[in-house]
Specification:
two-stranded antiparallel sheet; 2 helices; 27% helix
Length: 90
């Protein structure tokens, strides 16, 4: 069953530590990769943020094959390393 995202209710993720992260810039950078069809950052109420990345069909991976997952991660790694900053306190 397909899952569709239509946006988020709040533009800030508040972690369990009270730190606040704005996911939009990171999602935009990762989503700009030619290998990525969709991206969603999450982590409200957790210790750290996470990112769910959907590869474009031509770059689909078998998630049970660790080598394929690592290879795909390495394709998009640069975008995640270029994040603007660590979570900021507001």
């Amino acid at each position: 069953m397909p899952v569709y995202s239509v946006g988020r209710l709040d533009d800030v993720l508040v972690l369990s530590s009270g730190e606040k992260t704005v996911p939009g810039p990171m999602e935009t950078m990762i989503g700009s990769s030619p290998y990525v069809a969709g991206v969603c950052m999450f982590g409200r109420g957790r210790n750290q943020t996470g990112v769910l990345v959907e590869p474009r069909p031509e770059f689909a991976v078998d998630i049970k094959d660790e080598e394929q997952v690592v290879a795909f991660r390495n394709l998009i790694w640069l975008a995640s390393c270029l994040q603007l900053s660590q979570p900021r306190q507001y």
